[in-house]
Amino acid sequence: MAKEQMLQFVDVQKEMPQKRPPDLRAKDFHEIYAEYADEKAKVQASRCSQCGVPYCQSHCPLHNNIPDWLRLTAEGRLQEAYEISQATNTFPEICGRICPQDRLCEGNCVIEQSGHGTVTIGAVEKYITDTAWEKGWVKPAVPSRERGESVGIIGAGPGGLAAADALRRKGVQVTVYDRYDRAGGLLTYGIPGFKLEKDVVMRRIEQLEQSGVEFVLNCTVGEDISFDAIRGKHDAVLIATGVYKTRDLQGPGSGAEGIVRAIDYLTASNRVSFGDEVPEYDSGELCATGKRVVVVGGGDTAMDCVRTAIRQGATSVKCLYRRDKANMPGSQREVQNAEEEGVEFVWLSAPKGFTGDRVDSVLVQKMRLGVPDASGRQSPEVIEGADYAEPADLVIKALGFEPEDLPTLWGEPALEVTRWGTVKSDFRSHETSLPGVFAVGDIVRGASLVVWAIRDGREAADSILAYLAQPAQVAAE
């Protein structure tokens, strides 16, 4: 296909894969978007302008070669498109599903800026890799030679898994330790199936196992095994624990029954989807069926909670956020999906307190946006005398996550942390204050995106390989 057969954005309109109707998709946890048909993927990929400065690529944390694999898709050269996509992204089918493309690649697409509607990059990325799995092009890593060095990775989320994949491809022996009974971290237990069906994650875990990665699950560092023991067992260690400590609600009644953490609520729902027995779900403690649900927060976790509550059969679902729609941190695409499914957003609102030993209402205070804060965002201010009571049977705290106190939990005071409690590491090498110990993902960045964790994990793998090579270089000298 000649270059002029690209640039079809003037004649061809943007068209996402078909989205299931809200009344149908709100009854199950299956993904809401259908797959592109082959011809539709080619046509949508052909809309790419192949611009000289690909802003989509520069605004992707992984700097994926997006124009190249769009062109190859338009030409029907899907296996080559997959190989280029996989070259920079360990899990393209996952990023294609859950990345906030509207804030990253698609939001910076040149033809989007010119008013023609962005190229549907995420949907094409998903299509390419799903086709690769179907055709058998996705293979476990088989290193050309095995190496004797071993690396211990603490945390089986996207950062740890990306590093594990990269290290195994170089023949390093890799052991991943995780507190949960399944690997994947928030990919498995945090993100609902309607955004990321769990077989998509599990087949990647299986592929890593086939490549020789060892998983030690149900293993909490500091309890089941010491951090010192892991360091003693391996030539290098990577910390990729993520952040799981929930920011708390304040105000009278905040300790009432029926006020739960988002991570507990989402984990229970995802466990049920695996067929696990979950007593807290069966008892109603972590289930929204028949309840008036209020979710507090405006990020992607809050979106996951409100849309899960709809699917569980809540009587009503309301989301309180202290700023307006334009200033919320969550994906606008997710807000639209939630509104279509029946979620009511109560903008410029925040909880002041709660009533009932078992919560029966949220005392809501109305806000307005005042002067910008240090970050440049307008700060919410309380409107005096505008409080009201919002009936609620279940309140879900989705205010974000903070790091656990790893130096204390692991008995390692020499592990330096920042004033925010995140692990301090070199932004280039990802090495911490401890020799041979590296850290990536949310435990360094604070709560962030899956794609950033993947990038960190891949970069850290390169640094670990360089670190492992140092003793041999010293001996040679």
From TrEMBL:
Gene3D superfamilies named among the record's database cross-references: Alpha-helical ferredoxin, FAD/NAD(P)-binding domain
Superkingdom of the organism of origin: Bacteria
Transmembrane segments: none
Keyword Lipid biosynthesis: no
Gene Ontology molecular function, alphabetical: 4 iron, 4 sulfur cluster binding; glutamate synthase (NADH) activity; glutamate synthase (NADPH) activity; metal ion binding
Classification via InterPro entries: DPD_II, FAD/NAD-bd_sf, FAD/NAD-binding_dom, GltD-like, Helical_ferredxn
Keywords, sorted A to Z: 4Fe-4S, Iron, Iron-sulfur, Metal-binding, Oxidoreductase
EC number: 1.4.1.13, 1.4.1.14
SUPFAM superfamilies for this protein: alpha-helical ferredoxin, Nucleotide-binding domain
Name of the top EC class for this enzyme: oxidoreductase
Pfam families: Fer4_20, Pyr_redox_2
Positions of the Dihydroprymidine dehydrogenase domain: 25-136
Name of this protein: Glutamate synthase (NADPH/NADH) small chain
Organism: Actibacterium naphthalenivorans
